[in-house]
Amino acid sequence: MVVVWQVLLVWALKNLLFGVAASAVGAVLGSFLMNEYMSGNIQKNLYYASFVLRCLNYG
Predict the structure, then answer these.
(1) Which terminal CB of the chain, N or C, has fewer other CB atoms within 10 Å?
(2) Where in the sequence is the domain holding 41, given as residue range(s)?
(3) Number of domains in the chain
């Protein structure tokens, strides 16, 4: 028979695993975005995207 503490333990371990995974994904994504921002790629991409949107709007 499954005891309440076993259910709670599985629930806590599952949440811990998802928390660690989300933290790792956030750290990797944040590091990537910071590198892109510091190298100026985000600003360049936004400039070109706005240029393309302006061309499409006035085309």
Answers:
(1) N
(2) 1-58
(3) 1
